[in-house]
Amino acid sequence: MGTGEPLPAIWPPAAAVRRALRERLETLRGWLGGRLRERRRRLARAGRRMREQLDLSLFSAFPPWISPRGDRTVILIFNPPWGRPLRYPIQEIPAGCEITSDRRRFREAAAVVFHLPELRRLRGFRKPAGQRWVAWWMECEAHYPQIRDPDSMGLFDLTMSHHQDADVFTAYCQPELLAELRTPPRPKRPDHLVALFASAPYNASGRFDYIAELMQHLSIHSYGRRMGNRRLIADSGTQSKLDTIAHYKFTLAFENAIAQDYVTEKFFQPLLAGSVPVYLGAPNIEDFAPGDHCFINTADFASARDLAAYLLMLNSDDNAYAEYFHWKAQPLRQSFLRLIETQRTHAFVRLCQRLSADP
């Protein structure tokens, strides 16, 4: 190498080194942040469980320190769902009944309602004499082993759930749906065939595998956090979802689990918006249908490919597609009207009535 010749570039430029270090640091920061967030979530869950069990053990161990309830029926909601405030029509609660979430009144309560998806353990705690325990859930029991365990469920005297045979039946369809179901469908956009909203990771129904196969055969616009390929311009909650799917001919109404009576808002929202639900879920879905020929059931097709072919056929045949909305101009099914009628009275009111009728 001659004098004055530049040295060969054996080291990367300083800017490249700084950039690489920044990228490594960002990756490490993201990894550590994720671990810390997960640890905080676990600690928060553990803290809730400890407080829950401590409260219950204290209330079970000591005699009542609150005056007798006399002629008032106190119902304690031990753990309101997901920590949200209780919402119910206070003016409709019978005069002799009181709803509370104050755990200090545990021993005074004639009944205690436990939201099972957030309750880990009840064994080993004494139930005060004469008190009744109510198991409450709206989620599918496929995700919660304690609901499927006969020994665990044997601790409860009453059930309040989405099952039609529950002591207090709480469906996802409410009376206010009736007027909206009559709304005519809006015109569809040519490039809007199938919509999907899926954000929860639960997949006991195998829905994500089915959707992945379906996507191989037709265009699906997915707006949720799972399998997403579209984003809402503005998201104001349920109304934004309804306004979006109103422009699609079909909406995938795929439940996160398959079980009798587990029919959620996923089925009813497309019916309200004027999109045809393509349903995967409860084997008795017909019990919840408001009219004839108002949805498409994946169970009627041998494969996702066959279903895709049928949807594409309907997309090219306006008359055949329009038949899926004839029900809107017909009287609603009597079975659906009876189901809606059971929901006219709030679940807490019906629980009060049940407790008063069966002291």
Structural description of this entry:
There is one protein chain. The chain has 359 residues and is of the alpha/beta class. The protein has helices at residues 14-61, 145-148, 150-153, 177-181, 207-215, 238-245, 265-273, 304-315, 318-322, 334-341, 347-357; strands spanning 73-77, 97-100, 111-115, 132-137, 158-161, 168-169, 194-196, 220-222, 250-254, 276-280, 296-297. The strands form 2 sheets. It has a 6-stranded parallel sheet with strand order 2-1-3-4-5-6. Strands 8-7-9-10-11 form a 5-stranded parallel sheet, sandwiched between helices. Strand 7 (194-196), helix 5 and strand 8 form a beta-alpha-beta unit. Helix 5 (207-215) packs across helix 8. The longest helix is centred in the N-terminal third of the chain and has 48 residues, at 14-61. The radius of gyration is 27 Å and the shape is globular.
Helix content: 25-40%
Distance between the termini: 102 Å
Which regions have little confidence, pLDDT < 50, spanning 5+ residues?
Answer: 60-69
Roughly what fraction of the amino acids lie in strands?
5-15%
Shape by Cα distribution = globular
How many distinct beta strands? 11
Q: What integer is the average pLDDT?
A: 87
Largest sheet: 6 strands, parallel
